[in-house]
Design brief:
Shape: flat
Oligomer: single chain
Number of strands: 0
Helix content: 40-55%
Largest sheet: none
Order of helices and strands: HH
Strand content: under 5%
Radius of gyration: 11 Å
């Protein structure tokens, strides 16, 4: 599932020393996603 793919990606980036920020509500609303994800539409293939 997409939410697990995104969680694994976040963990990989964390291991590489990348710091990710959490979306604010206004940012999530602007791009049409939930703050907690998933961040890609269902038709998007990884």
């Amino acid at each position: 599932p997409k939410h697990l793919d995104e969680k694994v990606a976040m963990l990989h980036l964390e291991k590489l020393g990348v710091e990710l920020e959490t979306l604010r509500k206004d940012q999530a609303d602007y791009i049409g996603v939930a703050v907690e994800g998933p961040f890609k539409p269902e038709y998007y293939r990884y």
